[in-house]
């Protein structure tokens, strides 16, 4: 068995990205450990989502990464995202994969949200 434990997103605007993902219901802590830079961290079950500053050799966030989240309060989250001016690539609808939408995070990554 393999379990997913950690996902690190790198950005040039930590606070903005953490605020965006907080709209999903995630609660972030701002901290550092060891020699790491200050960063945001939220637990999702056994998985941790961390938001770090760009690496020294990194000029831009990685836009090829695509994320997907199952959301309990789907309708409320969609309303918050729309009120926040979030770009929707696919409006919420029933698909072969379930009821879902595709949005764009502040860095330009596509994010799939599924109704739980």
In short:
The protein has 116 residues and is of the alpha/beta class. The protein has 2 helices and 8 strands, in the order E-H-E-E-E-E-H-E-E-E.
Structural account:
This protein is an alpha/beta fold and 116 residues long. Helices cover 16% and strands 42% of the residues. Strands 1-4-3-2 form a 4-stranded mixed β-sheet, covered by helices on one side. Strands 5-8-7-6 form a 4-stranded mixed β-sheet, with helices on one face. The two termini are 23 Å apart. The mean pLDDT is 96.
Rg from alpha-carbon coordinates: 15 Å
**Strand order in the sheet with the most strands:** 1-4-3-2
Residue runs with pLDDT of under 50 for 5 or more positions: none
Structural class: alpha/beta
**What's the helix count?**
2
Largest sheet: 4 strands, mixed
Helix content: 10-25%
Query: Which word captures the global form?
Result: globular
Terminal residue distance:
23 Å
Quaternary: single chain
Number of strands: 8
